[in-house]
Amino acid sequence: MASAGVLAVAMTAAETTAYAQNGGVDTITVTARKRQENLQTVPIAITAMTGDMLEQRGAENIDDAARFAPNVAIGFASNGSGGGSNSDIFIRGIGQTDFLITTDPGVGLYIDDVYYARSIGTILDFLDVERIEILRGPQGTLFGRNTIGGAISLVSKRPADSFGGEIKATAGRFSHYSVTGSVDLPLSDQLKTRHTIYFNTEHGYTDRINVGDRLGDDEVIAGRSLLEWTPTDNFDALLSFDISHKEGGSANTAALSYDPTQGLAPLWQGLVGDPMMITTPVIVNPGNPFNSSATGPNVDDHDIWGVGGTLTWDLDWVSLKSITAYRSMEAEFSRDGDNSPVQYIQTHNFVDQNQFSQELQLSGDAMGGSLNWLLGGYYFDENATDQNDVRLASGLFDALEALPGAGIYLGGAPGTTCADFGIDPTVVCAGGMGNPVNVGFDVDFDIYNDIDTKSIAFFTHNTMDITDRFSVSGGFRWSKDEKTYFLEHLRVNSGAPIIPATTVEDEWSAFLPKASVGFQATDRTFLYASASRGFKSGGFNGRPTTTAEVGSFAPEFVWAYETGVKTEFFDRRLVVNTSLFYYDYKDIQLNIVSADTTGNLVLIVENAGEARTIGVEAEFEARPNEYFSFDGGIGFLDAEYNELNPGATIALTNELARSPNWTANLGVNFEYPISNDWIANIRGDWSYRGDHFIDSANTPELYQEGVSLFNARLALVNDSGGWTVAVYGTNLTNELYLTGGVSAVSSFGHVEGVFGSPRRWGVSVKKSF
User: Do the Cβ atoms of 701 and 48 come closer than 8 Å?
Assistant: First the structure.
């Protein structure tokens, strides 16, 4: 799938450079701890890929890139949103499956050092990317709120000192056409600029056979400009502006199963009717999920823009850095979840979000350079609104009102019937004009949510070199979130309020310490161990169907313990990094869809309990000679609930969502000169995600068996002329696999899923100048 944009993994915006030593594996410099360090001496588990590496792997967005990092799982169209750009990101079993503005992500997303607060609109095509970096494990001390699982940061290419640029055109399957152009325009020795524009269009891969259009169509135009001003040797200002406009169709959603005996299904089918006349549970479209009978709303649009400024002032004894940003998003997305001609499960969201953030950092060295210290403060202010038009079991309320009397028995004392309705208070019967019981079956909702968030934080991180081989690091972050939630939810047909205009407030604070030790055992072996605490903010139930469900839920916390070894062999021709971790994960936030005893819809967010997670990761790069290189990784994850809070609706035996036991990837690259001017580059990639459930309820239909994906690319490169011509293919074996979904079995008898892209191929031509 494609959409445009910028987003990714976090170290923070600073230089990541790669260079080869003696024909070996490239050395990478990162700034995971807000200062430049060799990747091999940073006590954090990190996967870093440059823009060229992403292009060679056929990775167009963060979902693609995540397949090349162990214990990372990303899906889109989360929790039935219908938005193909809406992500749910998990690292080491920690994340968030919901897209609502009342719930925060569990993995922090950063664009050029700026935190992206919402999961909406975050699966975006890479635009002029310098690198993507994935930090696994809590990053609360330096990165702050909602990085309990880790952080992902995408960093743009900075302006160059001289004029130059590139233009790239791509054509591929599903009528995919894209053009990207970038140019460096230095205005003087002190003032440099870089400008990028991107256009993409493609067809979706699911046909709506009753309408004649498609799900997943996509058309995007996006741009980015950077201006860097360096008036003196010790001052630098980097200003940025980016914008993305997307028009498209809903995500490629398919109905997976329908059980007419569950929830409201039998009542709706009996009174309103189902043109398919399904009377027993069925698996829908078992052979071809890319044909849909849906006729409902089909839209996935957004307008996203942002401005930012990073100012760096270096003095003799201290460095001051300011990161200021404002971002705005308007998004509209929908889905016809039942995938049928009737209006049974349909949603249509209109989200408007704005955020301002300001970060200040003071850093320096002391004690003759043995102590590296950093102090910082952070302020964040966000407003977001969501108008959600929900149409569920449409027609049921009108059908009940049209009945001659209260004749549908829903419950009561033993031996009672509807003849006792109005006489025996235990008897509940639906039907008949003006019967108040009917109102509960009006599940066509107009939902309005508005949330204001203010967050402040103070943090410090310090590293002391005890010897030239042994160092100790420590720091903490204190963070406080204040949230105000306004909601007004109405029933469309009866006009009755679900929740009248209501305001709820809550606040949470957290102290997040981190400590680590590093030991350079040899010139080529680095050992480390760390302990850190992570935090994901509390929030509010954004889908209450009764006043009793209005309220807040508590934050999540994790204590993470990790040890690792980073090694180099054979003059850096082989690099192997490994890590072992243990998590104590508490107050896990879960979204639950269920029904009450009368069949009415119940939607809640609960702090379900605690989990224990153990895992191992290994990554390697090898360059045995000048022609061949290999890279890969493997992750093992054992995550299980070990305690449930009172009233939790899951079982201890449930598996955590998006937490496969095994993830793995392997890449082979062959590069050979075929003439004085041309080099042939052939690359093949395999990635694997093991068996896992998409949802926390462990719905059988949302169980994805282990799946392998194979990509390949053949490129001809002319460095002297600046030409690259490539043919590529992704998902070459045309695997059918789920990337998202939601279950409403107990309330509507329905399960829907979102499938990943089938086989794709294409050709690209790039000219550098």
Answer: no
Mean pLDDT within 335-360: 94
Per DSSP, 746 falls in state H
SS3 757: coil
Measured CA to CA, the distance from residue 640 to residue 614 in angstroms comes to: 9
Tokens 């998003």 — which residue? 329
Q: What are phi and psi of 401, to 5 degrees?
A: -65, -30
3-state secondary structure 140-177: HHHHCCCCCCEEEEEEECCCCCCCEEEEEEEEECCCEE
Q: Which residues contact 752 (CB under 8 A, 6 or more apart)?
A: 80, 253, 254, 255, 256, 335, 337, 338, 339, 345, 741, 742
Sheet containing strand 114-116, edge to edge, reads: 45-50, 129-136, 150-156, 107-111, 114-116
Q: What is the mean pLDDT of residues 455-467?
A: 96
Q: Are 485 and 540 in contact (CB under 8 A)?
A: yes
Pseudo-torsion of CA 510, 109, 335, 303, nearest 10°? Answer: 120
pLDDT for 1 equals 44
| CB distance 10 to 143 below 8 Å | yes
- Is residue 335 a contact partner of residue 253, using CB atoms and an 8 Å limit? yes
Give the ranges where 499-585 is alpha helix by DSSP (H).
Answer: none
Instruction: Please answer whether residues 396 and 268 qualify as being in contact, where contact means their C-beta atoms are separated by less than 8 angstroms.
Output: yes
pTM: 0.93
With a CB cutoff of 8 Å and minimum separation 6, the contacts of 256 are 283, 284, 289, 701, 702, 741, 751, 752, 753
Band (pLDDT 50/70/90 cuts) for residue 143 is: confident
First to last CA, the chain: 29
Identity (one letter) of the amino acid at 352? D
For residue 680, give every residue at least 6 positions away whose Cβ sits within 8 Å of its Cβ, in sequence order, or none: 670, 671, 672, 673, 674, 714, 715, 716, 717
Closest among 324, 315, 566, 362 to 462, alpha carbons compared = 362
DSSP state of 696: T
Distance of alpha carbon 674 from alpha carbon 681, whole angstroms = 10
Residue carrying structure tokens 């967010």: 605
**3-state SS string for 699-767:** CHHHEECCEEEEEEEEEEEECCCCEEEEEEEECCCCCCCEEEEEEEHHHHCEEEEEECCCCEEEEEEEE
Task: Using alpha carbons, select from 136, 140, 555, 118 the residue that is nearest to residue 329.
Answer: 118
Task: Tell me the pLDDT of the chain averaged across its residues.
Answer: 91
- The one-character DSSP state at 8 is B
Identify which of 152, 180, 140 has the alpha carbon closest to the alpha carbon of residue 10: 152
Cα separation, 86 vs 386, in Å, equals: 14
Task: For the beta carbon of residue 501, count every other beta carbon within 10 angstroms.
Answer: 10
Q: Which pair of tokens denotes residue 227?
A: 């201006």
Closest Cα to residue 260, out of 750, 620, 647, 627?
750
Of residues 725, 707, 668, the one with CA closest to residue 57: 668
Dihedral, 5, 10, 11, 17 alpha carbons, nearest 10? -40
At residue 152, the pLDDT reads: 93
C-alpha 90/C-alpha 71 separation (Å) is 8
* Type of residue numbered 53: M
Mean pLDDT is lowest, of 45-49, 92-96, 274-278, 504-508, for: 274-278
CA distance 231 to 52: 31
Do the beta carbons of residue 373 and residue 364 sit within 8 Å? yes
Decide: 22 and 572 in contact? Cβ < 8 Å: yes
The widest CA-to-CA distance across the chain, in whole angstroms, is: 96
pLDDT category of residue 601 using cuts at 50, 70 and 90: low
Would you list the DSSP string of 301-370? EEEEEEEEEEEEEE-SS-EEEEEEEEEEEEEEEEEETT-SSS-SEEEEEEEEEEEEEEEEEEEEEEGGGT
**Residues making up the chain, counted from first to last:** 769
- CA–CA dist 351, 282 (Å, integer): 35
On the 0-12 / 13-18 / 19+ scale of CB atoms within 10 A, 614 is middle
